[in-house]
Protein: 27 kDa hemolymph protein
Organism: Habropoda laboriosa
Amino acid sequence: FFFTLGFLGHTRSQGDVPNTEEVLNKVSQVVDLNSLNITKGINMNDLNSTVTSTFEEAKKSFTQKCEKNGGKYEDVANASEKFKNCLESFVQISELTEEMEKYKPTGDLDLVFKNYCRKTP
């Protein structure tokens, strides 16, 4: 799950990056942000521990949602790992990133994705 989010986030064009409000709106549809202990005015010196803590709380919340809905978090984690392995079997992330950077200035990212979509099984 988290790899998938990271992969999809990594492949987005910088020109199409959502603003904070859009991201929080989408996340709040999955995770109850009010249940997380996120405080405003985060001290930049404590940012790393805050992010780690928030990530762990989000993971815990996601795990609870899985169990509540009849599934196991481990099943999601295993599926995520299988998905990651599948992607890595035909996509070299460093090569994809390099090609994206090459075509980003001209806006021709569709060419990159067409090339990789042809490789899918």
Helices lie at 2-10, 20-28, 47-68, 73-90, 93-103, 109-117. The two ends are 21 Å apart (CA to CA). Residues 1-5, 7-15 have pLDDT under 50 and may be disordered. The CA atoms of residues 20 and 26 lie 10 Å apart.
